[in-house]
Design goal:
Blueprint: H1 5-18, E1 35-40, E2 44-53, H2 59-71, E3 76-87, H3 89-104, E4 108-114, H4 116-124
Parallel strand pairs: 2-3, 3-4
Antiparallel strand pairs: 1-2
Length: about 130
């Protein structure tokens, strides 16, 4: 292969930044499937994700973050994962890409609430600090 992980993530982020979003992303925040986005004071958006974050549906989190970044880049995006009961490697990758997408637009991304199972996965992978969890 010869491609380093950092280069691959950078290329994916560049593709995401250059992609055009459908007009539906310009609409106001609303519940869509297993995600909800709400604007709060101080340019912070909270996105609540429910269910499982696995290879079949982990893209929903990235789409939700992308919608927020497309509409108006807030100072911070807080992910509420308190209702996410399962997180696999594809879900972890999606979270890391969400963080990269946000940072590339000058926005911080953190996880503010987490289900115990997801907390355990993030602890095992050493990602608690990366997302502002202890």
């Amino acid at each position: 292969m010869g491609t380093s992980r950092g280069v691959l993530v950078s290329e994916l982020a560049d593709q995401f930044a250059e992609s055009s979003f459908p007009d539906q992303f310009a609409e106001s925040p609303e519940t869509a499937g297993s995600r909800t986005a709400d604007r709060t004071a101080g340019s912070v958006v909270v996105i609540a994700i429910t269910g499982e974050m696995d290879r079949d549906n982990c893209a929903e989190a990235r789409v939700a973050v992308g919608e927020v970044l497309y509409r108006d880049t807030p100072d911070r995006i807080d992910l509420d994962l308190s209702q996410v009961t399962f997180l696999d490697s594809a879900g972890i990758r999606s979270l890391l890409l969400c963080r990269h997408d946000a940072r590339s637009r000058g926005c911080e991304l953190s996880i503010t609430a987490v289900h115990p199972h997801v907390h355990q996965v993030l602890a095992i992978t050493g990602l608690l600090d990366e997302f502002g969890l202890n």
